[in-house]
Amino acid sequence: MKSKDLPSSLKRRQVSLVLGAAVLGISTTRTAHAQSAADYPNKAVKIVVSFTAGGTTDIIARSVGNLMAEQLKQSFVVENKPGSGGNIGNEMVARSPADGYTLTVASVGPMAINPTLYKDLRYDPLTELVPIVLIADVPNVLVVSPKLPVNNYKEFVAYLKSQPKGSMNYGSTGVGTSAHLSSFMLMDALGTDAQHIPYKGAEALNDLLSSRIDFMFATIPSVISQIKAGKLRAIAVSSPKRSRSMPDVPTVAENGIPDFAAGSWFGMLAPRGTPQEIIDKLNKSANQAMVSLEARFISEGADPVGGTPEFFKDFIQKEYVKWKKVVIASGASAR
């Protein structure tokens, strides 16, 4: 007998059973999520860092992960997966089960710059990774070798403009990185030019220390010890406000380029579909960790941020829009 031939009472009963099963399924799913969040984590949590050990991303991930492990009574293990400007590690996390046991601490490059810089990304970090918390803002600082005859931003600009266009050079940690694009933005705003020399990782800093290159923008944590030791001279920071780590160093913005903002930042994310209860639990724990880490972060060159997942989501979107314009203007491209 077909459904249309059933008596109306049986039809009503059939519909009720279907609806009941659907409601039961939703209720069961919600209960499972609630239970998974209640006992989460019950095994080790992996934090994937898409860069090499010892770098700024790695240090921040380990610092926050260690305190979260103490709070949540479970191991948080950092695994380094460098390559392709941070894309390899982030894609690995995006493809992982959405159960809260594989996370990433990512930076401005993989999240906000690479979607424009790379034309063949196999995943979309803006949709396939969900924000947990913005951990820290890390301004880039314009640094020069003490052998360069400049002591402050005004002298740096005057010296730069006194040289033939393109005769000076600057280093970066790679094409399309915030270090590269920060210098491009500054040259563009000043109406001058310098030769860009991309490096891999710390090689740029080594050449700056030996005066093989003239200047570069670098994250404060990566150069703060050399600045304190007098091996490098800090000229200006790229953030809209002065860094709490280096309050005596002025911003580029306060030196005549009011809209200049080109810093780095670091945040924790999870695969799309991770239960909101787990996201909220991780967010609470990370925020608590940052309270304990505030003094240490500031001394090392990072400004702790914190906040809600929603705040971080909006922040990433704004950063993507900002950096998309810069990448296109610079002509930078990575394959």
TrEMBL record:
<comment type="similarity">
    <text>Belongs to the UPF0065 (bug) family.</text>
</comment>
<feature type="signal peptide">
    <location>
        <begin position="1"/>
        <end position="34"/>
    </location>
</feature>
<keyword id="KW-0732">Signal</keyword>
<protein>
    <submittedName>
        <fullName>Tripartite tricarboxylate transporter substrate binding protein</fullName>
    </submittedName>
</protein>
<dbReference type="Pfam" id="PF03401">
    <property type="entry name" value="TctC"/>
</dbReference>
<dbReference type="InterPro" id="IPR042100">
    <property type="entry name" value="Bug_dom1"/>
</dbReference>
<dbReference type="InterPro" id="IPR005064">
    <property type="entry name" value="BUG"/>
</dbReference>
